[in-house]
Amino acid sequence: MRGERFKAVADAIAASIRAGDLPAGSRLPTHRELARERRIALATATKVYRELAAAGLVVGEPGRGTYVRDLSGFAGLEPRRLPPEHRVADLSFNQPLAVDQGDHLRRALRRLAAEGDLAALLTQQPPGGRHADRAAVAVHLLDRGIDVPPANVLLTAGAQHGLDAVLAAIAPPGAVVAADALTYPGMNMLARTRHVELAPVRCDTTGTDPHDLERLCRRRPVVAVYLIPTLHNPLGFVLDADARQRVVGLARRHDFAIVEDATYAFLAPEAPPPLQTLAPERTFYVGSFSKNLATGLRVGYVVVPEAHLGSVTRALRTGSWGTSGITSAIAVGWLRDGTVTRLEAARRDDARRRQSVARQELAGLDYHAPSQAYSGWLRLPEDARADLAAHRLAEQGILVSTADAFATTPHTPSALRIALATPALDQLTHALGRVRETVTRL
């Protein structure tokens, strides 16, 4: 089949979609039906749909068919935002706030102004942060069961910066990194930018499937596995102790690194020990102060195995040289005076209250979340589409995240991730009621 014939078929379908002749949610012919209707080879029909999917115009759902995607821009990896004046509630992003957060910042700034050499905060910090600041984080991590010297703790400009530095250090372009089939969207972005292949591992609301990870390792040369074992984003599970031991056993048997994302781990202090404590020689433990303190603070850290300290430090230097001295000083001051401990306890109480509201408002729907999580996973009815649900909610001023934002596979479930931390409680109750009404009418 000539290339122009394939392009003509793809362009014709794309034009019909963009013109509205094939509205969002329309089911397209099967590959065989398309081949017969257009008088093209079956392989060419498959190529047409692959091209349309890459353009973001259609989505294939196993066992159901190929559907026209909603083009409003409110679904997917980088969704469109609503202007604040049109926004009723943002359930797409967790930005926990506290009523006294501004007062905490005022006190912290006054302390910085009154103590020590203020001008020193305006000088360039070393990559990985100053030793005293790294020591403060190392002491903080003792409460997580992680006992490492300050030299193995590198400060970053948030968890995303830390993940990027780790990938740069251990995963060259073309490398295979295993990750849950549904995982943190920021890792998807990083993998694409660094030309790293994310190989999906089966998972569900009960956890990562170690058997599937083992099957992958037997087939592919995996250099690392990226996991969120405690309060997974988006599925919310806490990986049990047995599964953690099995992951560590596989890592040693197949000699791959473990990248452990602990962004939400502070919400579940009763969780099994971190993977880092089970395999410190090969685990990169990535955390931040975004969810327990403030998303705008942009301070994080990576606990790095001794053998990789040099390479990760160089990656941090390449990416941004170092962290901000002012934001690091604020975070470290809050570590030392107990503010972090108090705010984490308050966040845990807040998450439980919000999850209680969510369970009440979404009762009867296929909603999954542990009681201490700041988000939940809402499976939609079998014949419903997540992109259409996101569009209809956006029309009401409510933003949500669709499953494809988290997918490492071409096929994604029809589901929404509901983030609970940002709206005020009364706004949250109202917004979740709208979610319930919208989903039941799909």
UniProtKB/TrEMBL annotation:
Alphabetized Pfam families for the sequence: Aminotran_1_2 (PF00155), GntR (PF00392)
UniProt keyword Transcription, yes or no: yes
Residue intervals of the HTH gntR-type domain: 3-71
GO MF term (any one): pyridoxal phosphate binding
PROSITE patterns listed in its UniProt record: HTH_GNTR
Transmembrane segments annotated in the record for this chain: none
InterPro entries linked: Aminotransferase_I/II_large, HTH_trans_reg/aminotransferase, PyrdxlP-dep_Trfase, PyrdxlP-dep_Trfase_major, Tscrpt_reg_HTH_GntR, WH-like_DNA-bd_sf, WH_DNA-bd_sf
Transcription found in the keyword field: yes
Keywords annotated in UniProt: Aminotransferase, DNA-binding, Pyridoxal phosphate, Transcription, Transcription regulation, Transferase
Similarity comment: family membership: In the C-terminal section; belongs to the class-I pyridoxal-phosphate-dependent aminotransferase family.
Protein name as catalogued: PLP-dependent aminotransferase family protein
Lineage of producing organism: Bacteria, Bacillati, Actinomycetota, Actinomycetes, Jiangellales
